[in-house]
Write a structure and sequence with these properties.
Number of domains: 2
Helix content: 40-55%
CATH superfamily of the largest domain: GAF domain
Shape: globular
Number of strands: 11
CATH architecture of the largest domain: 2-Layer Sandwich
Number of helices: 9
Strand order of the largest sheet: 7-6-11-10-9-8
Distance between the termini: 28 Å
Radius of gyration: 22 Å
CATH class of the largest domain: Alpha Beta
Strand content: 25-35%
CATH topology of the largest domain: Beta-Lactamase
Structural class: alpha+beta
Amino acid sequence: MLVEKKNISNNFLESIISFNKKPIFGKSQFEIITAGIEVFNHVPGICCAALFLLEEKDFNFFYKTSTAPLKEKEIERIFGELLNEGGITQVLNTGEITKWQLACEDYEYSQQLIIPLIRQSGIIGLILLLLEKQISEQLILDLCGVHSNYFASLLNNFDLAEEVENLNEITEQKIAFKTKDVVQSTRELKAILDSVQAGIIIVDKKTDQITDLNLAAAKLLGNSKEQIIGTPRINHFFFTEKRTPPNEILIDQEGLLKKSNGKLIPIIKTIADITLGIHEYFIESFMDISERKYMEEALQVAHY
């Protein structure tokens, strides 16, 4: 069950990372919104995700889109009931992700998750997740927060770009805001990576050296992050490497991890490409499967 929960969290995390590394230059607002909303479809127990944007003129929210367009009317009714019951007001007052359960039992959803999209000027919209089961894992809520912050910054930057295009001006303020948002998103993503229980390393494609890792990876390797960063990946991992096309994810590859004390332990890992600035990296997540291997061997012995 623990491994299953990790896999669920990893799937959501991988979808966030994939969205973050996609180029947005030249993309339309519709394309950005569609891709950003789709990431929430990896939340465990999700039925659908919807976006409501704030109209600044009258301070009312309007339905923009969802991952279930055929349920638009039902989603709008649920949003109206959340407004009447105080769920929307609570989010506006606190600026925090809010879990809600409607008093009305006419709907199949056991929980609603209301996620604010916040920028420096305030809340610019809300993400509404309709769930078939309640979320109890804090990590999922944290990941929702990280993605919503980055998603909000993209929407905000897109609006800024439209204004600049209309006025035919490119200002230093726009560049400063964009840089600040990227730095903030990177800092938040690193904090989330350190909270994930699976080991995660980032490897420079050219040098095959580890450039960063989370706390779980350092613990599995048996050394500090400072002592591991800069070392060749081959010093720590033994795999029969498989070549994958660019931008494709290699999943469930088994191999061995060498701890700092020389002990070898079996692991399973996932590899994906990621581009940060002008540099290309591998991002690899892995977990210890010693217990699973022990059980497999015990079953074989019992069988024969």
